[in-house]
Amino acid sequence: MTDVNVNNSTYNNLKNALMVYQEDASNLTAERVGQFIKHHYDNQRPRMQMLDSYYKGVDSKINDEVKRRRDEYGADVRISHPFAQEIADFHTSFSVGNAITISVNDDEEHPTLEEVNAVNDVDALYYDLFSDMSKFGRSFANVYRDQDERIEKIVQLDPQSTFIIYSQDVSPKPLMAVRYNPISVVGTNGETTATIQYIIETWTDDEYTRSSPVDMQSGIADGYTIAERQPLVTMPVVEFWNNSQRMGDYDGVISLIDAYDASQSDTANYMQDSNDAMLVIQGDISDLLDSASTAIDPEDKDYLDKLVKAKKDMLADIRKTRTLVLQSGISATGQQTNVSASYLTKSYDVNGVEAYKNRLYKNIHSFSRTPDVSDENFASNASGVAMQYKQLGVIQLAKTKRRMFEKGLNRIYRIVQALEQAVSGPWNLDADDINFMFTDNLPTDDVNTIQTLQQSGATFPQAYLDRFAPGITPDEMQGLRDEQSVTQNAMQAEMVRLHERDNAVDDEDIEEEDE
């Protein structure tokens, strides 16, 4: 029953961490929003902090344990492996490492759209949003109009302190976006103390609010005081979902990563303990132990307690120095037996341990749908179709992630359109006509493909072939070709001139001979 309760507790914790908040719009008072904030802070934020620590290579389970070894004086190495970073970065780079192509279903020019994309450096911005989505299972963007530059700005919000409350409809709609921003309190000595207060920001379809500083633990559940209000024309915050469960790309392999960290740490401990192997000395040690009593007065009323403590301290010192002293026996003739000194080491099943670690390593990549490019058999003697099957998990996952991400992009440009129309800006398109094309970021052997096609009789323009020249752009290639052409033309002209001069000399010689 204990195991069942633990499992249920773990599942309920995950359920709370993945909860999508829903409420009726009329109930979203400051007190009710404060309750949502408290729940997010206590239940969802810790999970995302854990995911962020794994992404940064600080795996919490292996590092948070007070002590992993029963042996007080044994090595206690903690090794973390950044599998989470590898997984999230691979899937992000595969899907949006090549910039998303943004186009419109017409032949007209759209300078405002191009300006919005250029000002916000959307290639980098969308990469970061996609990365957050892969790490945390969700990401957030806020769209607002910069009154000074008179252009829409798109900024990334931290999922660890941002969430959206949805309606209770069959098809939930976003009602309110909430962000609690920590304030660092600076003391009189200039040192930053613990963060104890937060600024609460909310966005709805028609209003933005900002609160006075509030305590998270003592005051937030009772509501907060609104210090600032601003009108809005639309809900400006967009939430991107990684999947329908809002789970990150490495959420499902955290336990495997923990097991791999533990096995590698245990191996390191074994290697270090082998270097500091325990020295076993077997002989007559009675005098050594008896020496512990010489410094204690036998007449002392606490003699026995002090004697026990002295011998315990001596044994502790022996263990601390990695030395094990054993009493030898006495033979029938009264001779001392088994007088020896040797090092005590634990046997190590190299094959079994390495097979276990390799299995964990493969499972981490397999269950996260991340190719193990270090595998010697990954690309050896594989046809194009075989390679596609090896990448099938990546491609299938990418389609889901891109479809979810495209929903958020559509919402961003609808917000931009609403903000432009509110100020009668020069927006000359329907946001629903904007298309997004994703290009797989994979190495390709284009040169070999072109050679195969040329051998089959296909022809390509020279300008197209110039794109594959290493270390030079097509324009630079054309410039060098033009220079070469000018030089060749000059040489040809010079050769023609010399030829004409030689012909003229020959004609003069002939005329002189005729005379």
Explain the overall architecture.
The model has no long low-confidence stretch (mean pLDDT 82). Helix 1 (2-17) crosses helix 2 (30-55), helix 4 packs across helix 6 and helix 7 packs antiparallel against helix 10. The strands form four sheets. Strands 4, 5, 6, 7, 8 and 9 form a six-stranded antiparallel β-sheet that branches. With 515 residues, the chain is α+β, with helices and mostly antiparallel strands. The protein has 15 helices and 14 strands. Helices cover 47% and strands 16% of the residues.
Regions with little confidence, pLDDT below 50 for 5+ residues: none
* CA-atom Rg in angstroms: 37 Å
Name the structural class.
alpha+beta
Subunit arrangement of the protein: single chain
**Total DSSP helices:** 15
Amino- and carboxy-terminal Cα gap: 130 Å
User: How many β-strands, per DSSP?
Assistant: 14
> How much of the sequence is in beta strands?
15-25%
Along the chain, the helix and strand elements come as HHHHEHHEEEEEEEEEHEHHEEHHHEHHH
Helix content: 40-55%
Average of pLDDT: 82
Task: Give the overall silhouette.
Answer: flat
- Biggest β-sheet strands, sense, barrel: 6 strands, antiparallel
